[in-house]
Write a structure and sequence with these properties.
CATH superfamily: Jelly Rolls
CATH architecture: Sandwich
Helix content: under 10%
Radius of gyration: 14 Å
Mean pLDDT: 81
């Protein structure tokens, strides 16, 4: 995993509060799991490559919620003490997390265009 984790699962939904380690995580994807990230604190960048090969980017900061569909390669760059809650459906299983063959951060060349992620939303934290 990418850092310290507190986990809770049912058979249908998984929940984890994750304190990400600094730097770039391993690019990976899930065959059947949908993930949603709720950013609690800190800062970072999430890049997602969809099945068409298009790469989108989300600025991660407190209050941002993003949804990652099955088979979408995703990778984060923790630029500042990133803490998030990951909600998975179905519940996360190690066998469903597969390492991608490429890094989404090294594959972006200077001057290339990265699309803003349209699934980004803001939420009110109470």
């Amino acid at each position: 995993m990418c850092g310290s984790v507190k986990v809770s699962f049912t058979s249908e939904v998984g929940f984890a509060r994750v304190k990400m380690v600094e730097g770039i995580s391993t690019a990976h994807y899930h065959n059947k799991t949908t993930e949603s990230y709720v950013i609690i604190s800190g800062a970072g960048i999430l890049r997602v490559k969809n099945q068409k090969g298009e790469i989108s980017e989300v600025e991660l900061k407190s209050g941002v919620v993003v949804k990652i569909e099955p088979k979408e390669i995703h990778q984060t760059n923790n630029t500042g003490s990133l803490v998030l809650e990951a909600i998975t459906n179905p519940a996360w299983e190690a066998e469903d997390e597969l390492v991608a063959e490429e890094s989404l951060f090294s594959s972006i060349t200077k001057g290339s265009h990265v699309q803003p992620r349209t699934l980004q939303r803001r939420c009110l934290l109470l």
